[in-house]
Amino acid sequence: MPATAAWRHVAALPVLLILALAFSMMAVAPADASQKSLRERKIHHGLNVAIKQKGDPYVYGAAGPGSFDCSGLTMFSFAKAGLHLPRTSDAQARYARRIPKKNVKRGDFVFFHSGGNVYHVALFLGRNHGNKYILHAPSTGKNVQRDPIWTSSWFAGTLRKRG
User: Fold this and answer.
1) Domain annotation covers residue 94
2) Domains in the chain: how many in total?
3) Domain extent for 75
4) Which of 130, 135, 124, 127 minimizes the C-alpha distance to 58?
5) Average pLDDT, stretch 42-71?
6) Residue 26 burial (10 A CB sphere; 0-12, 13-18, 19+)
């Protein structure tokens, strides 16, 4: 091999090293992004499972598949999506990461409270004409349904990763 050809191979080494380092750094970012998108896909799937329960009757202590109480609905729906939740609304409120009301997104939790005790959980559906809507299993004699939030005594929680 002529001296000039050998020199080109040696000169190319730093460039190859830089490219290899750049590619290895790029490989880390998509892995993190795919984890986040996997979590978001599971949350979306859990919400869709809950929506399919619309019309099912409220039964105290029920966790599906044909009847639900509020925390039974969230636990059942997210379990179908591969996400574990504790059984009661109070335990779910402690399990979820609390977020500001202004940051609540579709598929997040809405926890209703009185005197510091969480008494009800619902899934946030979205905003429409200034109202915030939820999906929940409300009470005996009612079915899983969509309703506007009726009180200011609530806080939001999420299973989304920190951004």
Assistant:
1) yes
2) 1
3) 6-158
4) 135
5) 98
6) exposed
At residue 24, the 3 state secondary structure works out as helix
The contacts found for 60-65 with CB under 8 angstroms, 24 or more apart, are 60/140, 63/87
Compute the distance between CA of residue 135 and CA of residue 107 in angstroms, rounded to an integer. Answer: 10
**CATH number reported for the structural domain that contains residue 33 in this entry:** 3.90.1720.10
Residue 99: CB atoms within 10 A of its CB come to 17
Q: What is the pLDDT of residue 22?
A: 47
Check if 120 is active-site.
yes
DSSP-assigned letter for residue 18: H
Selected catalytic residue, list 44, 84, 113, 136: 136
- For the question of residue 129 being annotated catalytic, the response is no
Sign of CA dihedral 153, 159, 160, 163: positive
136 assigned to active site: yes
Query: In the chain, how long is the greatest CA-to-CA distance?
Result: 90
Q: What is the mean pLDDT of the chain?
A: 86
pTM of the predicted model, to two decimals?
0.78
Give pLDDT tens digits for 114-157. 988 999 999 999 999 999 999 999 999 999 999 999 999 999 99
Name the CA radius of gyration of the chain, rounded.
Answer: 24
CA dihedral 82, 87, 91, 95 (to 10 degrees): 0
Quick check: is 1 in a domain?
no
